[in-house]
Specification:
By secondary structure, chain A is an alpha/beta fold. Chain A has 12 helices and 13 strands. The first copy, chain A, has a single domain, classed as NAD(P)-binding Rossmann-like Domain (Rossmann fold, 3-Layer(aba) Sandwich).
Amino acid sequence: MAILVTGGGGFVGFNLVEALLARGEEVILFDSGALPAVAQRALSGHARQLNVARGDIRDAAQVIQVFESHRIDYIAHCAAVTSGAAREAREPAAIVDVNINGTLSILDAARTHGVKRVVYASSGAVYGEALYRLARLYEESPVLPLSLYAITKFAAERVCARMKELWQTEVVCARLGTVIGPWERNTGVRDSYGTHTQLAALAVAGRTAVLTQREVRRDWIYSRDVAAGLLALLDARAPRHPVYNLSSGMEWKGAIRGWCEALKSEFPDFDYRTAADDEQANIWYTDKDRALMDVGRIAQDIGFVPRFGPREAYADYLEWLKATPDFWR
Amino acid sequence: MAILVTGGGGFVGFNLVEALLARGEEVILFDSGALPAVAQRALSGHARQLNVARGDIRDAAQVIQVFESHRIDYIAHCAAVTSGAAREAREPAAIVDVNINGTLSILDAARTHGVKRVVYASSGAVYGEALYRLARLYEESPVLPLSLYAITKFAAERVCARMKELWQTEVVCARLGTVIGPWERNTGVRDSYGTHTQLAALAVAGRTAVLTQREVRRDWIYSRDVAAGLLALLDARAPRHPVYNLSSGMEWKGAIRGWCEALKSEFPDFDYRTAADDEQANIWYTDKDRALMDVGRIAQDIGFVPRFGPREAYADYLEWLKATPDFWR
């Protein structure tokens, strides 16, 4: 099958592209930015399966061009502006355009070109206030998206559901948990990096991390599990629900200090310590304590269960760090 | 004060324009369509207070033009595409553009031009599934917007809340109930008419209405109460909440047959009856039974209480019908 991955150069998109290529699929990687050399090299063994198309999903002509140049059976729609507050204050219209109008544009192209299914990479951020008020988040839990990122992701989810109803375009949404792993980088549309990435950068640079006294509670999910989950949603015979949580479904206890230990074993110049009472940490944490996203629905309907706990994730992530030293240059 | 009313030629907008003019305010009526002669005549006594500006809120240059041509202290943002399913299937992008991007554009102009407050006319439709599942709808009740109209109205509400936080732009949202009353007409962006309007049209034409056997349950609100509620939100010293329900807060029992009786008293050629078992009604109802929207918050915070029950609303509406016969030509 031929799969269009929008935002294929981004964090989630690129992990999915790797997984698709490894399985022998044909991939059309669509992204507004150029792939850095290190990413191009990572895909170089799959040149015959891979088409890279540069374009902006806000530009209808560029989207049409991709569909007219390639047979596309499936779409994984990962293109988004992963905005922080500064960008949201500065250019809210661009975020709305990419995240909502862009999604609609992809759905329209999917309908026109007889695409078999669109999988939309949404975000656990849509739960908003519920992340901090409820004990556990089910797909049916009430949402109150707070950031423009979350607002636009939720609107796009609902647009997917509505256009499926009106157009019979097959589309399913995955609400991603907090993703960690290879390939998180500055693409121009990602405004902050996860805690693990910040620590990896310090480790590679041989510096010392100063951690806050308390870790955030989080059901991190490894990027390769996210890719596998999206793949499962592409493959599934007939997903019964419009939305699926895609997270690890469990709290990674002591995850940050665990990652520091793992990094220390490979990068002897790296060290970490806890900030003193009057000291500032030099890494920051993704958001605050969050409720766990329940993953019963995707397990039951789709048969997908995450493979990576912290131990497996860190081993794999370290392998990648060693094999990809030029990622940090 | 000078108030910009976007969508000022529409159903809700025009009722608000009338109320503002009656109170002696200066109004800038902004609309994408031309005002019909009957509407122009209705405002003709207030020519010195009124500025009519034609333009599309999707066009940034046209929005800027309005702000540069007029002092604007307050904005009532009523412009929207009130879409039905056919339009949602046909031109979803235009609906997203007007209802979300257009709202953002108005907020941006409000910030730039030091507007004191924006009141956004949202809709009870945002509750979506909750309208049919819960007994009573509070502003904090969970939402699941279903139609593209509802999805975009909810997204716009959340955009208002977020940009208020980021820009300190004063904005408050009103979730309107099911509005009945004068001036509901085909503006090009309203896809269906309320039951009361359909019956009024039959009455003026001297025809017979065939009703369904059972009425829908609904907390209708009279359009002049909606205008008064929006005005109260413009006037309020400091609304404590981002969103207020604006409905009558009570079920109008036998509202449809009551309206038919009222129409019969003024239009002797009009009649109505209930459809036989094998017969189709010739009017349709706005949606199905809905939960009532609680109006305790707007009463408590803003001091606004609707004045029109069915009796008062029908008397006033009949007066308008008699005084405005050319509305139906």
